[in-house]
Amino acid sequence: MAWTKKILRVNLTDGVISAEPLNMEWAQQYLGQRGLATRYFVEEVDAQVGALSPDNKFIMATGPLTGTMASTGGRYSCITKSPLTGTIACSNSGGFFGAEMKNAGWDMIILEGKSPTPVYLYVENDQARLIPAEDLWGKSVWATDEEIHKKHQDPQIRIACVGRAAESGNLFAAVVNDLHRAAGRSGVGTVLASKNVKAVALRGTRGVGNIKDMKRFMDATFEHKKVLAANAVTGAGLPTYGTQVLMNVINELGALPTRNMREVRFEGAHSVSGEAMHEPRASDGKKNLTRNGGCFGCTIACGRISSVDRTHFSVKDKPQYWGNSGGLEYEAAWALGPDTGVDDLDALTYVNFLCNEDGIDPISFGATVAAAMELFEDGVITTEQTGGIELKFGSAEALVKIAELTARGEGFGKEIGLGSKRLCEKYGRPELSMTVKGQEFPAYDPRGIQGMGLTYATSNRGACHLRSYTVSSEVLGIPVKTDPLATDGKPELVIAFQDATAAVDSSGLCIFSTFAWSLDNIAPQIDAACEGDWSVEKCAEVGARIWQLERDFNMRAGLTAADDTLPKRLLKDAANVGPAEGKVCDLGAMLPKYYELRGWTTEGQLTPETRQRYGLPS
Amino acid sequence: MQKSLHIDPEKCTGCLQCEMACSYENEGVFNPSKSRIKVFTFHDEGRFVPYTCTQCDEAWCMQACPVDAIVLNFVTGAKYILNDRCVGCKVCTIACPFGTVNYNTSTGKVIKCDLCGGDPKCAEACPTGAITYIDANATGLERMRMWAAKTDTQASTHA
Prior knowledge:
The structure holds two protein chains of two kinds. By secondary structure, chain A is an alpha+beta fold. Chain A has three domains: 6-203, Aldehyde Ferredoxin Oxidoreductase,  A, domain 1 (4-Layer Sandwich); 243-440, Orthogonal Bundle (Aldehyde Ferredoxin Oxidoreductase Protein, subunit A, domain 2); 450-515 and 535-614, Aldehyde Ferredoxin Oxidoreductase Protein, subunit A, domain 3 (Orthogonal Bundle). In chain A, the strands form four sheets. In chain A, strands 2-1-6-3-4-5 form a six-stranded mixed β-sheet, sandwiched between helices. The model of chain A has no long low-confidence stretch (mean pLDDT 97). Chain B has a two-stranded antiparallel sheet with strand order 1-8. Chain B has a single domain, classed as Alpha-Beta Plaits. The mean pLDDT of chain B is 95. By secondary structure, chain B is of the alpha+beta class. The longest helix of chain B has 11 residues, at 17-27.
């Protein structure tokens, strides 16, 4: 059990809200959250649907361990078709919103159709209603959060909402919950806004029960919690430095994509690293990092709570940004920093605040700005297009200005909101877009970490590190060290990571737990909580089934094997420095083997045997 | 030895595992809204502060209860609710200066921390040691040790 076994379905077009039982047969095959919501999605939505059409649906889904004592069990995901990539979108977030959904008694909320006017969904346990939100439209995430709390006179409501970027049609807009946790990637916020939904506000007081064997569950969660606390990464590195522990490590490795991935090492990396966030600044002696914070039920607490130096040019006249808020995590710091060549920690922190305040994905934003900077440097765009902004690599002023415009959907910010692929195509230089399937790369150069090349090329949601984080193995040696420059064995490694990750993303747990935990630690917790047999093998099989289901959806949506590739820059231009000097990403040495192991044709389609093996819907 | 809950907000990450452990012990489900201990977030300041009953010696809730439903556990020092006696009049919730006694609409009784009979689950669940259960006669010991460590022994010897 652990599932509430209930789904809340909201038809926005006609305003009808209904409860329905969870399909428990599917729950046994797809577990929850990412997997189970995708199963519902492919059943109910035509893969060819326009992402911003009312016929697209938007699902918020928890896992069976969300809201329980299992460490890191606070996750939920947003599943829809992405306007950025045209693939399945599944963006995962922490904070407290997911647990609140479970406490209100729901495994999932399915939003369908389109509301004729702006609304927000308010759910208090069994009671759900759509409330007019004309007054909230045009407001930021932070202002919306404050207004809804005020309106209901209840400080304990948990809110997920979209900001002005999503309303303006920005294609990489996020859904932000609890002020600074985000279902960040693939434009899931854009879809929510396209349905005229400003926010989902939850209050749950029913509690999460339905645990199969409570004694065994409590014993298992306590035992494995100790593993997280004792591990060097989850017990020390992440709480102290957050994911920013990686900045200097990846730079040393010559795998830190720099200035739109032209280079692989950034001379200013230290200034924007996790270590730098601990250094007292000159003006007030305070550190950028105030403290670490945890999401619901988390034993790691990698979250950054930071402040910007109030004498810094970006905020000196804006006292509303002088307090603490969500600080830089590695991917955001990389996209806003090394990829744009900006080494100003306060500028990056302020821009990160803006990304949270108005709900944009800092990875896609930073990477798109980087592409625009290269277009500017090449003279393809000028101050005429940018509205006077000197969009040069390394300019903190330009980054700050463009972030303000993009967050609010104004001026040249609207063009940045197209994402790097559409922007570069628009100006006739598609080769400058560092994307796969239309989604921007995260912070690992696949010339220096070969497995990440295959990861990006085959990710079901476009370039992404969170579909198979082989950096764990290739850089950190978890669970075993592999050579980052080798391609041998990488198809097997990527598949193992993809499958395990899909299972973890469907459980309610956080993927960062897997720096310390393998499925050997996770399966026993699922098994104690959920009816049925949840062995390690079954979890891996469920993960593989989810991967195949997502792939099948993408192929039906019209993608082909030709989309499983990388930008020419990574396949043709060798790294100029570091251990990978002289190397390109040798995707061709990995991809055919990957297809074969996945049970796909050379065209990348699932074979009938594969479909049958995983019991996929026809 | 009688013990007290000791809270060090500096160590709290706001993960709410204390609230889950408390609600599980008392309600049988994970339900932060029914927890006897609450973690407060001061967002702008970047602070998390767990807060619960201090078990006042001269407990105003106990004094105020018209039906003697709040009683003292002589071993732990906790003041706890006798559910079969509580009539849900809520006078104790008004009497408590700290707000740590609260009414539960689903049972019609009040709830407050009872130190789990001497084995508080919040302290057990806390992953960072922000909540501990320590000698009630020396809750200042750690802070004294901290200041003692800062003492400049060398200087005072030569003074």
